[in-house]
TrEMBL record, chains A, B:
Keyword rRNA-binding attributed: no
Protein source organism: Paractinoplanes ferrugineus
Keyword Ribonucleoprotein among record annotations: no
Pfam families: MarR_2
Protein name (record): MarR family transcriptional regulator
UniProt domain HTH marR-type: residue ranges: 3-135
Protein keywords: DNA-binding, Transcription, Transcription regulation
Amino acid sequence: MLADRLGYLLKHAQSAFAERSAAALAPLGLTGRELAVLTVLGGSEALAQQQAASRLGVDRTTMVALVDALEAKGLVRRGPDPVDRRRNLVHLTERGRELLDEGSRIHAEAERTFLAALTADEVSQLKSLLRRALEVR
Amino acid sequence: MLADRLGYLLKHAQSAFAERSAAALAPLGLTGRELAVLTVLGGSEALAQQQAASRLGVDRTTMVALVDALEAKGLVRRGPDPVDRRRNLVHLTERGRELLDEGSRIHAEAERTFLAALTADEVSQLKSLLRRALEVR
DNA sequence: GCTGATCGTCAGTGATACTGACTATCTGTG
DNA sequence: CACAGATAGTCAGTATCACTGACGATCAGC
């Protein structure tokens, strides 16, 4: 049975949610990936591109284009790392933090509607199961 | 927190599992997508390409290349549909059914090792939650 | 002060999926 | 029966995405 196969379920859940989330974020001019970068950068201190990339699980060459796009929109700015000049520290701008807040709100809302068939308990169960499956590797 | 975001969890679970499953299937000369096609075709009667595509959730133009590859490997064969000559009915060959059986075994095994951190109950819980989230749309 | 490693960047590549157009065929209407 | 519109499979072109390999700049250890 196809619908019992993990690969099928994950792939379709992922793509369906990505589509819904992209549509919800479009009015902000943000993609889901860009919001994810803002989220990573929203922590206490600025990160080098590579650090941001590894937290996000993307390649450092992919991060270049993501930061390019965000910088072009004025949401982040690259700055030199005083202690290691190979690195760019990426900071959120004020506008970047605004969009991060607004985007997070929208993302949470998209999650709720996507998982409308599940109770709040089941949602956290689902996330916890996925997290545990991922943590092992 | 990034690891709480559904999109992040789904994307990484999907790609990690796809990678593992592809590696496990490689000795058979099959990709995960090809095995999925064989699975869909493994039902009681032959399907037209479009029917197979919609059950799999892929585009009909994508199915063309998938069937091309499987036919080149001798695992399926295209035949005319006697009642609608626009359609190709796609049948499993004997070898195709052998590889479907072997591939299903390997896929199940890959699923078990991928979800090794979860109990059997939790695995079916996870699948059932994903299935319910998908069924709504 | 050298050697090897790391960071950001860029060009090129491969996989994936889609759109649009085309042919052949079917279906329904008159 | 004839014709219009819809559908199946195919193909070319395009967009996205992520990766590899290379490069210059910089760092760290001996």
